[in-house]
Amino acid sequence: MTVQGATLLDRFEAERPRLRAQACRMLGSSAEADDAVQEVWLRYDRTDMSEVKNVAAWLTTVLSRVCLNLLRARQARREQPLDGHTADWLTAVDENRIPQEEVEWAESVGLAMLVVLDRLTPAERIAFVLHDMFDVAFSDIAHTMQRSVTAVRQLASRARVKVRGRQVRTADRDRRRAAVEAYLAATRVGDFAALLTLLDPEIELRADATVTGTGKPLTLHGALAVAKSAVAATPRARHTALALVDGSPALVMAPLGQLSLVIQFGFLGPAITTVQITADRDRLRTFTIALAG
């Protein structure tokens, strides 16, 4: 390798962690992110960079366009990210088949964030990730996306509303959020006694046929049965996060950011009276999901 080649490689490698972090958030898939960064390297390697004044900005522009094209292609095919085709997520979690480093990557980004980002349009996602998550100027994003600054601001604004939802804080919703968080915390460590303190004695749990994997829905009655069911689901709890679902505090299970099921709660006073678990793919698409704030 020539001195010039070594210098080019060193400059790229210095930017690689940032580029990969951006690509992971734009694409929601570490495998696709690695492919996108590799494509940027190939373009960088065959480009005369002597006239480029800001290499970091050039790399961000190329990466963003690569990711935008991938997102548009995915949307046109109406497919999930590539990772979504490789596993039955519920079974993969139950059998502990998801690599630890991939789990840690998804946790570092935020499971709920990955779910919400996946519901944005490609253009909204690029604008939001670059501006709100990486502080890229709207003028630079406009150049990247070949749109006006005003149009890019509008894209980011629409994305922000979708990501954050309508954060109307009330004492009642705050109490329910705290109860849902406590339910998740107790499930993660298998704390049967803590679960019982949260559940109404006459609680009813309903799970659809996709959740059970038997082709038949499931109904459980009573706090003891529901608490036992939650403890049995402890392995799934690590892949579960708090979110707003249709405006109410709920839980989303999303291994590597892939939405697999939604858990909704009903209340009477402070006690949880109903649990509804949904994993049917068509039904999952109908939910409005936002960060819990």
TrEMBL record:
SUPFAM superfamilies: Sigma2 domain of RNA polymerase sigma factors (SSF88946), Sigma3 and sigma4 domains of RNA polymerase sigma factors (SSF88659). Residues 12-75 form the RNA polymerase sigma-70 region domain. Gene3D superfamilies: 1.10.1740.10, Winged helix-like DNA-binding domain superfamily/Winged helix DNA-binding domain. GO terms for biological process: DNA-templated transcription initiation. Keywords: Sigma factor, Transcription, Transcription regulation. Residues 114-162 form the RNA polymerase sigma factor 70 region 4 type domain. PANTHER family: ECF RNA POLYMERASE SIGMA FACTOR SIGI-RELATED, SIGMA 19 FACTOR. This is Sigma-70 family RNA polymerase sigma factor.
